[in-house]
Amino acid sequence: FGAGTGNPFFTTDTCAALRAAEIGAAYLLKATKVDGVYSDDPEKNPDAKLIQEMSFQEMESEMKIAVMDKTAVTLCRENNIPVVVFNIKKKGMLTQAVQ
Fold first, then answer.
1. Which among 14, 42, 73, 95 could bridge 48 via Cys, Cβ 3.0 to 4.6 Å?
2. How do residues 59-88 score in pLDDT, each as one tens digit?
């Protein structure tokens, strides 16, 4: 799914998590313009490190690392929906993300 809910205070991430929960999705695919989750913004900090795996607790507690908004993270955690973050601008990454 792609789009928002049309409701104020609901981000596209929250909408994606809501729809994923509604359909019982196995994963939530989050397309971004970077290669995944980093310790800092890699476009501003060349020393930012790619984080290979992150728990929902880490996603909720790490203020500096903005994977998704807290509501989206909570929806995914409560519905056991893993989040796969990938770079939509790189050829073949969507295919790799779903395999």
1. 42
2. 888 766 777 888 999 999 999 999 999 988
87 phi, psi to nearest 5 deg: -90, 110
The angle subtended at Cα 56 by Cα 79 and Cα 73, nearest 5°, is: 60
The strand pair at 28-32 and 83-87 is best described as: parallel
Q: How far is CA 47 from CA 3, 10, 38, 57, 89, in A?
A: 33, 32, 10, 24, 21
Note the pTM of the prediction, 2 decimals: 0.81
Rounded CA-CA distance 39/90 in Å is: 21
CA–CA gap between residue 15 and residue 13 (Å, rounded): 5
